[in-house]
Amino acid sequence: MKSYMYETMYILRPDLNDEMVDATIGKYQSLLKEQGASILETQHRGKRRLAYEIDRNREGVYIQMNYTGPGSAIAPLERAMRLSDEVIRFLTVKQETGCAGRS
């Protein structure tokens, strides 16, 4: 079976305080771990201006998570993000690990 690395970038509402942002990051990390994924790296990219207004927000807190694990871990994560009031947008991309010829 091929091993895949996933990257999920999500944007949180700008009005969340630091404790709420940290709690939200922890919630999604633990959700992935429960599904059998292992977190490689989580980057808190800070508050940035959005390219266009989303749900009356002009800014958002960007978070990037890189992890490996089964593909079945993605659906519960994205479902939780879709139902969350804190998450404005999210995107998950899949990469095959161990690719030769990447520059």
How would you characterize this protein structure?
The chain is of the alpha+beta class. The chain has one domain (4-93): Ribosomal protein S6/Translation elongation factor EF1B (Alpha-Beta Plaits, 2-Layer Sandwich). The protein has helices at residues 18-34, 74-83, and strands spanning 4-12, 38-54, 57-68, 87-96. Strands 2-3-1-4 form a four-stranded antiparallel β-sheet, covered by helices on one side. A hairpin with a 2-residue loop joins strand 2 (38-54) and strand 3 (57-68). The mean pLDDT is 90.
What's the short story on this structure?
With about 100 residues, this protein is of the alpha+beta class. The protein is built from two helices and four strands, in the order βαββαβ. The longest helix is centred in the first third of the chain and has 17 residues, at about 20-35.
CATH structural architecture: 2-Layer Sandwich
Q: Specify the helix fraction band.
A: 25-40%
Count up the helices: 2
Going across the biggest sheet, name each strand in turn.
2-3-1-4
Rg, alpha carbons: 14 Å
Largest sheet: 4 strands, antiparallel
Any idea what the CATH superfamily is called? Ribosomal protein S6/Translation elongation factor EF1B
Which percent band covers the strand fraction?
over 45%
Count of domain modules: 1
CATH fold topology: Alpha-Beta Plaits
Shape: globular
Mean pLDDT, to the nearest integer, reads 90
What low-confidence regions span 5 or more consecutive residues with pLDDT below 50?
none
Would you state the CATH class?
Alpha Beta
Counting helices, strands and paired strands, the structural category is alpha+beta
